[in-house]
Specification:
Helices cover 42% and strands 20% of the residues. The protein is built from three helices and four strands; from the N terminus they run ββααββα. A hairpin with a 2-residue loop joins strand 3 and strand 4. The radius of gyration is 19 Å and the shape is elongated.
Length: 89
């Protein structure tokens, strides 16, 4: 397996990289590795960052769900408003 290592900042642990093709062939292994090490894996396509395999706890998943729900409801609440103050939603 070909693996590149990049350092984010001095003293930081290297972040693993893997190609889309390698991840496609061994997805379960990459998911297990991310979970076991609790570190993300950068998926590359043609040598450039393309996606991220990020371990996710149940709590974090719940936070994502509630955050998206709140964002959607806020957007619906301001739907049709002509005031430029609300354009950021």
């Amino acid at each position: 397996m070909a693996r590149l290592l990049a350092t984010l900042s001095p003293g930081a642990l290297p972040m693993p990289f893997a190609s889309v093709a390698d991840v496609k062939n061994r997805l379960s292994e990459y998911l297990a590795r991310a979970r076991k090490t609790n570190r993300p894996i950068v998926v590359t396509r043609h040598g450039k960052p393309y996606a991220l395999i990020q371990p996710l706890s149940e709590r974090e998943a719940e936070d994502l769900i509630w955050s998206r729900l709140a964002e959607r409801r806020l957007g619906e609440a301001w739907e049709g408003e002509d005031d430029a103050l609300y354009d950021y939603l």
